[in-house]
Amino acid sequence: MKKILIVNANYYNVISNNLILGAQKSLKKTNLKISIINAPGVFEIPSVIQKYINKFNAFICLGCVIKGETPHFNFICSTTFKSIQEISIKYRKPISNGIITSLNKKQALQRSSLIKNNLKKNKGFEAAKAIISLIKNEPKKIK
After folding, report:
1. Which amino acids are annotated catalytic?
2. Alpha carbon distance 28, 32 (integer Å)
3. Extents of the domains making up the chain
4. Which of 51, 62, 109, 134 is most buried, with most CB under 10 Å away?
5. In this predicted structure, what is the pLDDT of residue 117?
């Protein structure tokens, strides 16, 4: 059984909880073993993944960064996303990115919506679907 770790940045708690619920809905009918761990913010997600890289088969990153009035948003997003990509390539592990980057809280709430007919817009739901696809597309060993 494949083990998946959801790494959730809970700085924006309501939004991150919605992302987790969206991911869980997507993963509900799979035979994957799912664990969740919280990080204080998205910047810490790569460190958490690195810590658990040998204990899980794949990772789902969830969280939110809302643009403020300083360049902080740009630094956090670019550094975090690049680090996640580098870890995925270095360790050859699938990592999906459900981190919302938005200009305001309203956009973030829309992208973490749990309304049934909008669930496909939930970035947690999308990230979980992506990881399922990546795992299913792994080559199977042939004797």
Report:
1. 72
2. 9
3. 3-136
4. 62
5. 72
